[in-house]
Amino acid sequence: MNSFKSFWLAALLLVSAQFTFAQTAPTAKPSAKGATEQFQIKTSAVCDMCKARLEKAMAYEKGVQEAHLDVPSQVLTVSYRPDKTTPATLRTAVQRTGYDADDQTAEARAYERLPDCCKKTNKVHSDTGHK
């Protein structure tokens, strides 16, 4: 009977030791991997359809957390994870969508697929002060 009690006592100590060590395990340190940076791109976007098109295109880019186009200033602000993408990649994504990105012109084929209201050469936009 003593050996039976000793066995259960040893088992109880073993189980309680497991729980004690589980509670004192080191906690995960916050890493800089999840940190985001912001990047601004001057675009050739001219209307709200451009805004919707660019913001949606940026949502599909790897590492992009958020994108917002200010139509009057034509500036696209992108929050992104630098461990997943780069400003050059984001600029290229804007060009592939059909818009100029900073001093780099849009891809011709993508620009041709834009609706007429989104083209920077549209007379409607050039009369109102847009490019």
TrEMBL record:
Keywords: Signal. Residues 36-102 form the HMA domain. The keyword Ribosomal protein does not apply. CDD domains: HMA. One of its GO terms (molecular function) is metal ion binding. PROSITE patterns: HMA_2. InterPro entries: HMA_dom (IPR006121), HMA_dom_sf (IPR036163). Residues 1-22 form the signal peptide. This is Copper chaperone.
